[in-house]
Amino acid sequence: MSEIKQNIALNNMRHSAAHLTAHAVAELFPNTLLTIGPVTDEGFFYDFLPEQNFKEEDLPLIEAKMREIVARNLPITQREISKKEAEKLFANNPFKLELIRNIPGDTVGLSQQGDFFDLCKGGHVASTGEIKYFKLLNISGSYWRADRNKQALQRISGTAFCTEKEFKDYEKMIEDAKLYDHRRLGKQLDLFSFHEEGPGFVFFHPRGTRIIEGMKKYIAQKLDAANFQQVITPVMLSDELWKKSGHYDHYKNNMYFCEVDNKNYALRPMNCPCHCLVFKSRPRSYRELPLRMAEFGLVHRYELSGVMHGLLRVRAFTQDDGHIFCSHEQIENEVLLNINMAFELLKKFGFEKVTVGVATRPEDSMGSDQHWKNATQALKNALETAKVPYEIYEGEGAFYGPKIEFRVADSMGRLWQCSTVQVDFCMPENFGLTYVAPSGKLECPVMIHRAIFGSLERFLGVLLEHYKGNLPFWLAPVQIKILTITDEQKTYAQGIYNALQREDLRVEMDESSDPVSGQIKNAQLEKVPWMIVIGPKEAEQNVVSIRHRDGKQEFGLTLEQLITKARELNQ
User: Which residues, 6 or more positions from 336, have their beta carbon under 8 angstroms from its beta carbon?
Assistant: First the structure.
């Protein structure tokens, strides 16, 4: 079967599983109102308005009912019916009636299995008996049409596969994901914590901070080489700024507001308006373009408590943000620069498999059709010049412009969206940004938004799970741990420690009274790349032995040899 046919088959299976979920819920909880249930990259979900909220313990009950319906082997049929007929069928469901009114034309699609039916465009397996390999995953909160001003709903998420092998591979991946969950690793490695005094806000411990600073150091070197200029801007500004930028109209439900001296302010959800103000702080000439501005900018975004997830979904995070102000003629080169930077960084951090897509205009957006067309084409042109294959992610762009998204596959085969590059014609116009062109006339620059890590917090969460906690030597918070067999070697070990510290290596001494076997076990739990084991022989011969994280050992290395090896790995 071709890849395209495989994708269609999987999509149909998951679409059918979503309907199967709704069917089971309708039989178990007949007063529940059904809304929509699309397929996702990971599986599917269905949103409901239940009479009483579902609980996690309801999932096995629903799943059992689904298997009962599977055993009935009901044929799944698809047909077109008139809108009037559909309105009669769904007369008691305001969500379905709203959908019917918004569907163009005089007919709508109807899917049916037994006495269960639902609005549907089609794309199913032949019968419920074919839906064998599925699992319900969780219950979370949602809103009708993803609008926080509309009815709150409950979402049941799940996944389904076409074959038993695919399903077992998925279950193995889930087991690994639980074992190497970044929240579990964060606690084990003493990297970060969360506290009820600040839900969704990360507390980085010293070791976690070292990793974040290592990430910053790496990208800062790349930014310097590409002539980006670092800035620091405020995290709280007048709500008038956010009205001007468009965030107030398109993003206010995700923002935090407060009042100071009888004036309204907001914590910034994005850094771009601040960089517009820096650009506008004095007259600009075409000779300054492209003007590349960068900031490790802390942003705050309101997230529902039900969707927060460790470092992967937080309410405050730091972006390695950058904004390029350029002329129309410079767009493609600037986008190319950041495409190459993204690929270089992702490879450095161990991500070899990268999928690229262009996210196009969403329903909730600002700007003219021509601006969106030009911006989208500029991104496509740059990718084609770079000979990078890409997909189209319909309607997934930001409200102010389309974007290139880089999605990486981790060691467990999961896809994560990280780097983005966006072209924006709207915000420079909103802020009245201008520069003096060669003709002497004032022209409006184009703004390119780029973030290579995306969020430092989220990227770290992905990294921890990708490496299963075994971060590469150059990034590990503790690179070397020195262990001694007896106290008699402490003086010699201290000399080794001092020499390694002078090399800016992250080294620790085990000061416990544990036997060396216990010291090794502790260092392995902390996933330290190198354990320097020093006994009487090493102290006498003025050498060291390395025990690597994977259990391999090297004996009789001089201090100079040790430092040389460490320098090579730190490149």
Answer: 382, 385, 386
| Residue indicated by tokens 């609005």 | 119
258 is catalytic: no
Average pLDDT (99-110) is 93
Is 178 catalytic? The answer is: no
Active-site pick, 120, 162, 272, 274: 272
Q: Rounded to the nearest 5°, which phi and psi values hold at 131?
A: -90, 85
98's enclosing H/E stretch is helix 94-102
> Which tokens hold the place of 377?
């084409």
The pLDDT assigned to 3 comes to 47
Tens digits of residue pLDDT in 352-401: 899 999 989 888 787 788 888 888 998 999 999 999 999 998 888 888 78
The one catalytic residue in 113, 319, 422, 479 is 319
DSSP string, 295-356: EEEEEE----TTT-BTTTB-SEEEEEEEEEEE-GGGHHHHHHHHHHHHHHHHHHTT---EEE
Out of 301, 466, 547, 549, pick the active-site residue.
Answer: 301
Catalytic annotation on 276?
A: no
How many helices (H) does the chain have, and how many strands (E)? 18, 27
How does pLDDT run across 259-303, given as a tens digit for each residue? 999 999 999 999 999 999 999 999 999 999 999 999 999 999 998
Q: What is the pTM of this model?
A: 0.79
Is 188 assigned a catalytic role? no
The active-site residue out of 284, 371, 403, 407 is 403
Which pLDDT belongs to residue 175? Answer: 86
CB 476 within 8 A of CB 528: yes
Provide the percentage of residues in the chain whose pLDDT is more than 90: 80
Please tell me the predicted confidence (pLDDT) of residue 161. 95
- Check 19, 23, 449, 481 and give the catalytic one: 449
Q: Work out the end-to-end distance of the chain between its first and last CA atoms, rounded to an integer number of angstroms.
A: 45
Long-range contacts, 520-524 (Cβ 8 Å, 24+): 520/483, 520/547, 523/481, 523/483, 524/549
Domains and CATH numbers, the chain: 3-162 (3.30.980.10), 182-230+268-466 (3.30.930.10), 480-569 (3.40.50.800)
Nearest of 402, 399, 255, 249 to residue 316 by alpha carbon: 255
Note if 195 is an active site residue.
no
* Catalytic hit among 19, 292, 323, 466: 323
Q: Which residue is catalytic, options 239, 320, 321, 424?
A: 321
Q: What is the tens place of the pLDDT at every residue in 176-216?
A: 888 899 999 999 999 999 999 999 999 999 999 999 999 99
Main-chain phi, psi angles of 475, to 5 degrees = -110, -15
Q: What is the residue whose two structure tokens read 């990280």?
A: 418
Q: Catalytic residue at 183?
A: no
